[in-house]
Write a structure and sequence with these properties.
The structure is a single chain. By secondary structure, the chain is of the alpha+beta class. 25% of the residues lie in helices and 35% in strands. The longest helix has 18 residues. The radius of gyration is 20 Å and the shape is globular. About 12% of the residues have low confidence.
């Protein structure tokens, strides 16, 4: 009898799918302050958890995103409108910077996650996701992710050359 119940439960799971795990976080909408074209989203994930942000765009906009993390095994994937399964950008192979010019109309999804090695160890990743969206192709950048990228490059060069970050000049 016990084995029959287990077998029926297993068959039901196969037929109707596995239940969603608690590690799958709800999607959060990206909102800009009135008149702003950029925002910075901060948070933390742990283990096999993730954070997913959704940004609505129109045709022809310019989109830039930069992810800064506290963990080297923390990345983000970007899914374009209409693509739920296939990522347009895979951070673990393409890096933590994404840009699209021009955009397609619809919802862009940004999923922040830890690689399996770090997730198994239940590590934590604190992150900062800078997103810029200008109104038309070739529009002026709001400068948030550009400034963040310059600061990050300056800090990495300072560590590499054992020099104060204030002495590093970028071209």
């Amino acid at each position: 009898m016990k084995h029959t119940r287990e077998l029926l439960t297993f068959a039901a799971l196969l037929a109707f799918g596995w239940p969603a795990t608690s590690s799958q976080a709800a999607e959060r909408a990206v909102r800009f302050a009135p008149g702003a074209t950029a925002t910075v989203l901060k948070g933390a994930i742990r283990g096999d958890g993730d954070a997913t942000y959704v940004l609505q765009t129109i045709d022809g906009q310019v989109l830039q995103a930069l992810l800064t993390t506290s963990n080297r095994s923390c990345y983000f994937n970007v899914y374009e409108p209409g693509q739920q399964q296939e990522a347009a950008h895979i951070g673990s192979s393409a890096g933590n910077e994404f840009g699209r010019n021009p955009t397609k109309a619809g919802a862009y999804r940004f999923q922040i996650y830890l690689m399996r090695n770090a997730a198994r160890r239940n590590e934590t990743c604190r992150y900062s996701l800078a997103i810029e969206l200008t109104g038309k192709p070739g529009g002026a950048s709001a400068g948030v992710s550009d400034r963040q990228m310059r600061d990050e490059c300056r800090a990495k060069a300072a560590a590499m050359y054992a020099a104060p970050a204030t002495r590093i000049r970028l071209a």
